[in-house]
């Protein structure tokens, strides 16, 4: 069932907009610098007045509107998760900025969704159990942003709990990504329409996003541990290399090097959640290890042609990384050369604990991947993909 539409929000408060603009201007300037966004300066905000006239406020607001169109959701996500200049107060100001817009786009909705989850994630204690993150707890943490909300959850939001339960049943990242779970969550958000901005809906979607992050993170670590266990078993069998072309490595990838790369990823994932990871690489690497253990289908391609295609993919990945606004050492390590001299290259493959993968401009938002859309049915329960 699609939620009914809700009337558009009222006109903005110009005094509040100016106060918000002064808080947000340094963040936007740094965002533009970080991602080399070609945007004109805003004279009204470069030397802000304490009590500007309406025209000045409108000029500043137009500058923010232009910047919001230029800044992609994944850029905002990467910036806030890697920058130390934005604290929870800055995130709160960003939330209020986007919520106060007279009209909302899919992009602004996704930014609000991410910002609220990020705000809550920073406020919530690390020892918070999943069942402790109930609606009442999340509402209390978001009260400074959303005010005191009526905690009676509309029936159409109950579907989020079914999606979370399906995510908890997933046994691997591949199952989560391709089992229909993520599509159901996206459909719930998209079909909420303007009801998405109701306080109780924002609270429910924040809780949903936070718990999905945790489920996603646990599955990433599960996959990494399974890969490392599989590499250990292969090593004990005397296997030195495996075919990892599907994961953008070589047809004879050394076990030693794969182990070091996975260890570097594992260190990186200790940060609870990192955006823009090359998730297909992780999923495909587990599939390659399973295939080498005899648990899955072998990688496609053989001979020199397959090796050349794998090399082309690797070089393309390196080129995309080099073109990114903020290249990350881990991605370079994952796609670099030096396939034969294991002893000399393996130490270089390990990424710094602070390294993160670069995010290309068209990289899907958060941990989403491009899948053929399916109609959202809140009465149905997404089923994990059956193993073949």
Indicate the low-confidence ranges by residue numbers.
1-10, 271-277, 300-388
Can you tell me the overall shape? globular
Mean pLDDT: 75
Number of strands: 2
Contiguous helical run count: 16
Q: Separation of termini?
A: 32 Å
Over all CA atoms, what is the radius of gyration?
A: 23 Å
Strand content: under 5%
The secondary-structure element order is HHHHHHHHHHHEEHHHHH
Subunit organisation of the chains: single chain
Strand order of the largest sheet: 1-2
Helical content stands at 55-70%
Main beta sheet, described?
2 strands, antiparallel
Structural class: mainly alpha
Summarize the model shown.
The protein has 388 residues and is an all-alpha fold. The protein has helices at residues 14-34, 43-46, 54-70, 73-82, 88-99, 106-123, 135-146, 159-169, 173-178, 181-191, 199-236, 255-268, 279-292, 303-323, 329-335, 342-349; strands at residues 241-242, 253-254. Among the domains are: 8-123, no CATH class; 221-349, no CATH class.
What would you note in describing this structure?
This protein is an all-alpha fold. Among the domains are: 8-123, no CATH class; 221-349, no CATH class. It is built from 16 helices and two strands. It has helices at 14-34, 43-46, 54-70, 73-82, 88-99, 106-123, 135-146, 159-169, 173-178, 181-191, 199-236, 255-268, 279-292, 303-323, 329-335, 342-349, and strands at residues 241-242, 253-254. A two-stranded antiparallel sheet has the order 1-2. Helix 1 (14-34) runs parallel beside helix 3, helix 1 (14-34) crosses helix 5 (88-99) and helix 11 (199-236) packs parallel to helix 13 (279-292). It is globular, with a radius of gyration of 23 Å. It starts with 13 loop residues before the first helix and ends in a 39-residue tail after the last helix. The model is unreliable at 1-10, 271-277 and 300-388 (pLDDT under 50).
């Amino acid at each position: 069932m699609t939620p009914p539409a809700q009337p558009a929000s009222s006109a903005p408060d110009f005094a509040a907009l100016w106060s918000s603009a002064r808080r947000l201007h340094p963040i936007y300037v740094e965002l533009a610098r970080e991602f080399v966004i070609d945007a004109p300066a805003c004279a009204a905000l470069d030397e802000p007045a304490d009590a500007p006239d309406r025209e000045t406020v409108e000029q500043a607001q137009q500058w923010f509107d232009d910047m919001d169109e230029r800044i992609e959701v994944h850029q905002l996500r990467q910036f806030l998760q890697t920058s130390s200049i934005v604290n929870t107060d800055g995130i709160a100001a960003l939330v209020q900025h986007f919520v106060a817009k007279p009209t909302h786009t899919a992009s602004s909705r996704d930014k609000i969704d991410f910002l609220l989850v990020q705000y809550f994630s920073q406020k919530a204690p690390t020892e918070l159990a999943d069942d402790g993150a109930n609606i009442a707890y999340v509402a209390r943490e978001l009260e400074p942003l959303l005010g005191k909300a009526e905690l009676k959850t509309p029936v159409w939001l109950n579907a989020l709990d079914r999606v979370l339960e399906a995510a908890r049943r997933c046994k691997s990242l591949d199952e989560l990504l391709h089992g229909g779970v993520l599509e159901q969550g996206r459909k719930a958000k998209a079909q909420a329409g303007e009801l998405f901005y109701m306080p109780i809906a924002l609270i429910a979607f924040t809780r949903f996003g936070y718990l999905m992050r945790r489920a996603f993170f646990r599955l990433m670590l599960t996959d990494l541990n399974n890969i490392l266990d599989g590499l250990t078993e292969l090593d004990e069998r005397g296997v030195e290399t495996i075919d990892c072309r599907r994961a953008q490595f070589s047809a004879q990838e050394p076990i030693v090097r794969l182990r070091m790369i996975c260890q570097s990823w594992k260190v990186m994932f200790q940060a609870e959640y990192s955006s823009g990871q090359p998730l297909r690489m992780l999923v495909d690497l587990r599939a390659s290890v399973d295939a080498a253990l005899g648990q899955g289908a072998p990688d496609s391609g053989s001979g020199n042609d397959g090796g050349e295609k794998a090399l082309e993919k690797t070089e393309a990945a390196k080129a995309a990384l080099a073109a990114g606004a903020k290249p990350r050492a881990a991605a370079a390590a994952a796609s670099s050369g030096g396939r034969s001299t294991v002893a000399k290259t393996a130490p270089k493959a390990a990424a710094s604990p602070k390294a993160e993968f670069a995010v290309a401009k068209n990289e899907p938002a958060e941990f989403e991947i491009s899948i053929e859309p399916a109609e959202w049915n809140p009465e149905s329960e997404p089923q994990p993909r059956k193993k073949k």
